[in-house]
Design brief:
Blueprint (H helix, E strand, L loop, with lengths): L35 H16 L5 E3 L12 E5 L7 E6 L10 H13 L2 E7 L5 H6 L12 H16 L4 E6 L1 H11 L22 E4 L12 H8 L7 H6 L13 E6 L8 H12 L4 E6 L20 H15 L1
Parallel strand pairs: 3-4, 3-5, 5-6, 6-7, 7-8
Antiparallel strand pairs: 1-2, 2-4
Helix pairs in contact: 4-5
Length: 326
């Protein structure tokens, strides 16, 4: 296991994967390097990526029982030793992903604060599905694909970074991040023949203007449809099972929660529901509610106002306190 702040090697290198036989006794299927030339080449690749400001990206399902090759994890490492790690889940109604405002810019900001960030491009329904509703006839991407992607990302990060690891998400991604905490006792990786040797429970969660409930009247209908699909969305049992406010337990990890009262996309009362559930279960958390700020500002200063420009510093302060207490 890599020490805190170390760059994963070779798993997160953007070079072509090295083929080889499975290492003896290695249940994770990591492959040994064939020769010193390969090791040197990979090392040079990492140095070049750092020098030109690119971030290594990995297709997280390669070499597994999952055939999806579009799910990626992009790393953002601080200059010095990382004091925490965060898997970042951009939002987009479970139909698309805002990879810039809620992905790249978040990763860069966290790295600048000394945190190792890993931006996850997880499976979503897709923009074409939003227009054509083709999942009426074929499966497409839907639950539990998204939570499986996040669990796989948490597994890979924990195997390569020896420090506290949390999940941060925005909007629908905030629902996914919180869902990973509530469903951490169930492995969605077994269907792909993966048996993790590390915990899939995040050490903390940051849920920013999140989708929380899948039930009326506060549900964000587009996110519910994107997550469940055209037929499953009709099943009340599934709506209840994935409504976050219904499944908070006393052992839920600490939560940083944020919303704005003027949010016209996801009703801010979603966050109020989650705050109430966390309070009732005695889960350590911080809920910040801004009067203005709307939705979708992420880490983009151009989209933030005087209030929402404060959330990033507040999160860093909160996280340091949480990790110190634990």
């Amino acid at each position: 296991m890599a020490p805190a702040g170390a760059r994963p090697y070779p798993g997160f290198c953007a070079c072509k994967n090295v083929e080889g036989e499975k290492a003896a006794g290695d249940s994770r299927g990591q492959r040994p390097l064939r020769c010193p030339r390969v090791a040197i080449g990979l090392g040079i690749c990492i140095l070049l990526l750092n020098a030109i400001g690119l971030n290594a990206q990995e297709k997280i399902w390669e070499g597994t029982g999952c055939r999806d090759r579009k799910v990626t994890l992009t790393e953002y490492w601080p200059e010095g030793e990382a004091w925490a790690g965060v898997v970042v889940c951009p939002g987009g109604s479970y139909h698309w992903l805002d990879m810039e405002t809620e992905g790249t810019q978040v990763g860069e900001w966290l790295a600048g604060e000394g945190i190792a960030a890993f931006v996850l491009q997880y499976r979503v329904a897709g923009k074409f599905e939003f227009a054509a509703k083709y999942r009426t006839f074929v499966r497409g991407n839907r639950y539990p694909d998204m939570i499986a992607d996040l669990q796989r990302a948490l597994q890979l990060v924990r195997e390569r970074y020896n420090g506290p690891v949390g999940a941060m998400g925005f909007s629908a991604g905030g629902h996914l991040a919180m869902l990973s905490a509530e469903l951490s006792g169930s492995s969605f990786l077994a269907q792909y023949g993966i048996e993790p040797e590390v915990t899939l429970r995040p050490d903390f969660v940051a849920s920013i203007y999140p989708v929380v409930t899948l039930n009326n009247p506060l549900v964000h209908k587009r996110s519910r449809l994107g997550l469940l699909g055209e037929w499953t969305v009709l099943k009340q049992e599934m709506r209840d099972s994935l409504s976050l406010e219904r499944h908070v337990k006393a052992d839920t990890p600490p939560v940083f929660l944020l919303s704005c009262r003027d949010d016209k996309v996801v009703d801010y009362r979603n966050s109020v529901l989650l705050d109430s559930a966390l309070t009732a279960s005695g889960v350590p958390h911080l809920y910040t509610q801004y009067a203005t700020g709307g939705h979708g500002f992420g880490a983009d200063t151009a989209k933030q106002n005087e209030e929402t420009s404060q959330w990033q510093a507040a999160f860093i302060e909160w996280l340091k306190t949480v990790l110190q207490d634990n």
